[in-house]
Amino acid sequence: MSRDTTFAARSREALADVALRRTLSRVTGHFTATRERTLAAWEHGATKLANGAAARLRAVENLATLLPELEEKVTALGGTVHWAEDAAAARTIILGLAQERGVTSVVKGKSMVSEEIGLNAALAASGITAFETDLGEYIVQLAHEPPSHIIAPAIHKSREDVAALFEKELGETSDGTPEMLTAIARRRLREAFLNAGMGITGVNFAVAETGAVCLLENEGNIRASTTCPPVHVALMGLEKVVATTVEAADVLQVLPKSATGQSMPAYFSVFSGARRPGETDGAREFHLVILDNGRSRIQADPLFRQLLACVRCGACLNYCPVYRVIGGHAYGATYSGPIGLLLSTLLSGGEAHRGLPAACTGCGACVKACPVGVNHGRLIMEIKRRMVEEDFLGGGDGFLASLLAKGYAFAAKRPQLFALAAGTVRRLDPELARLSRLAPLARYAAGRELPRPKEPFSERWLQLDTEEEA
Ligand code: SF4
Fold it and tell me: Fewer Cβ in 10 A, N or C end of the chain?
């Protein structure tokens, strides 16, 4: 699906894909059902959820002290911290590290931030081969597609799709069972782990108090990506820090339950700097790249700041009635679903994602699902308000919408003018209905009915008064 079209066009394309809708419905339904079972059985779950959320929200408030503390601790552990103001700076840092060491291939653990900065394309342009080693990421990389879900990158693909892809791209035939498909990927990737000069991962959370970087996974590929190659580069958005180990444990309790419905992931890894003398495993060099790329701007806004508490569990995507029918690619951005439309719109700060706020029905399902209390609905409304009142994200619609809203506000404050305008619209109703059948409105009006202007409330109120008196 091309990112060069509008959100509306991509959505239409997705909605026409019946197989995609079936796959999305099945997988998101599985995620939500498993999550609900796990949360219902969680002893003292409400308190523990609140602890995890509080840890994240506190961290977001205290980034100015936690990040320097994290840098100090990582450095003391023998690691190196790099600060990247934007995507280009992060790419330059990572490419520089690879080129200085003569690295020709890297293995990668799943990292949405690396998608955000377009790392794979930059590595490829410099002649460095990147192997995605998370199974879902491996599948979308083979398909030359971006991930379509924060935690399940290949959620849009059925087993049959993957079997066909492996046959086309790898020349591997299979019976289409998950076991056989996984075995093929494992065999192919094993060599990549052994030959890579660098492992690149994301970060689920970093602990300021100790300098530890924590990663959750289910496949063991992150363990292999960080222990086979001599260099480990971890890339994190600057918000992914927590203050203490106790608070990290609070977040660890919440994240897998909200993401996949697992009490704990299969692997939980804690990286404390580079391998020290006498140790037998771990990368010899550890680099932590901390990315801003618009996050400071979000942090500075008292309302939008809550977005940075997100633990990327993906629950809001799984419950969103829009995501569940159009999938991630229709958003045309790195992040999709309720959290994605907010992050993409605010991080880019530009026109590319102007259509995304329309991807919300206002049902509030995402708000109920969010373990850290992000109020997506309120924030989406605020973006829409700023688009109208402040021409936020640029473009011309803001001016027109603003003019209409101001016109409405002007009339609404003047009862006689409002009654006159409403009466005029009612009198023009048959004409408007006819007008809607003409091009270019005909396509929009097909299958829709214009709302019929009714007798205004003020007139009905007067009638009520008269009826009561009678
Ligand atoms: S906004 Fe909330 S529900 Fe959505 S991914 Fe982030 S933490 Fe999960």
Answer: C
